[in-house]
Design brief:
alpha/beta, 9 helices, 26% helix, elongated, binds iron/sulfur cluster, binds magnesium ion, nucleotide-binding, ABC_transporter-like_CS, ATP hydrolysis activity
């Protein structure tokens, strides 16, 4: 029920030598109620920009982000409280001079979601929800561990009674064992509260644990989309294949990272994307056409799509199959 308009394009870094960078270019994504959509890609692929636009923090230069049909931004300002965000670094997002209880209640009180006389109860509920002892609410952020601070950031988001949570690398700065705890918390909250979650991460293993569907981004575009198991088991885009081969298949709580085979080549500058397919300079199976024609994201079967000339359909493509991005 979260729809990004059909020609969503954000121009960032306004004018670099009179040219502007399209951090996100022509992306359409739909997220159904109660679903968790993972957005993966290397750093700089535009996934954070996309997340900020979905959250109503940043306006696209064209296109509209809608929640249940209503624009999430009106006149350049976020127009809804039902989309909340959780970012990578909870220390940066929590005011160090505020008691965490005040931080959590600030938004709900300002928006009339909690009456002043119900503060204590609302705070206890918010902290319990994320597995923290309500008696800690008078403490300051520095008195908590990284994992606890992320729980506080999640409690602050939940206190706004959101329907949609946009999470950008919410476990990236945590130790692996703590990552698993926070991921379990997301799984639990999704089930208990029926939350819709957009989970942005460079970590494919983390996304596999959480997401129902995944969108793979490269240079500001979605290059592949589909149900998480289908995409991970049988990727259709060479970039997705490369990403999956570049991480060892280890369990999340297994500790270290070994045997990484990175994708060859560098990510091109978004200022001068290559002609034809954006991925062609790095693609191991590129053909002549790839240097000339830019592949559109096209349906390859039920709920699957990829932007590659050589991607084969997974099943006969039916008339009603949705193209996930344009
Ligand atoms: Fe590779 Fe060509 Fe497919 Fe692009 S269109 S991913 S270059 S095969
Ligand atoms: Mg990012």
């Amino acid at each position: 029920h979260l729809t990004l308009g059909d020609k969503l394009a954000a121009r960032l870094g306004a004018n670099v030598e009179t040219r502007s960078v399209r951090a996100v270019d022509g992306v359409t994504l739909r997220v159904a109620k109660g679903e968790t959509l993972g957005i993966v890609g290397e750093s700089g692929c535009g996934k954070s920009t996309l997340g900020r636009m979905m959250a109503g923090i940043m306006a696209p230069t064209s296109g509209t982000v809608r929640l249940k049909g209503e624009p999430v931004m009106v006149n350049g300002r976020k127009a809804t409280t039902t989309i909340q965000t959780v970012f990578q670094d909870p220390f940066a997002s929590l005011d160090p001079r505020m008691r965490v209880g005040d931080t959590i209640l600030e938004g709900p009180l300002a928006h009339g979601l909690v009456r002043p006389r119900d503060k204590g109860e609302a705070l206890a509920r918010a902290l319990t929800e994320v597995g923290l002892d309500p008696s800690l609410s008078a403490r300051f952020p520095h008195q908590f561990s990284g994992g606890q601070r992320q729980r506080i950031a999640i409690a602050r988001a939940l206190a706004m009674q959101p329907e949609v949570l946009i999470c950008d690398e919410p476990v990236a700065s945590l130790d692996v064992s703590i990552q698993a705890q926070i991921i379990n918390l997301f799984l639990e909250l999704r089930q208990r509260l029926g939350l819709t979650i957009v989970f942005i991460s460079h970590d494919l293993a983390v996304v596999r644990h959480l997401a129902d569907r995944v969108a793979v981004m490269y240079l500001g575009r979605v290059v592949e989309e589909g149900p998480i198991g289908d995409v991970y088991d049988a990727p259709k885009h060479p970039y997705t294949r490369g990403l999956l081969e570049s991480v060892p298949k280890i369990a999340l709580d297994d500790g270290g990272r070994v045997d990484i085979r990175p994708i060859r080549g560098e990510i091109p500058s978004p200022l001068s994307p290559p002609p034809g397919c954006n991925f062609n300079p790095r693609c191991p199976i590129a053909v002549e056409r790839c240097r000339r024609d830019d592949p559109a994201l096209r349906p390859l079967g039920p709920a699957r799509a990829a932007a590659c000339h050589l991607a084969e359909p997974v099943a006969p493509v039916a008339a009603g199959d949705t193209v996930a991005a344009i």
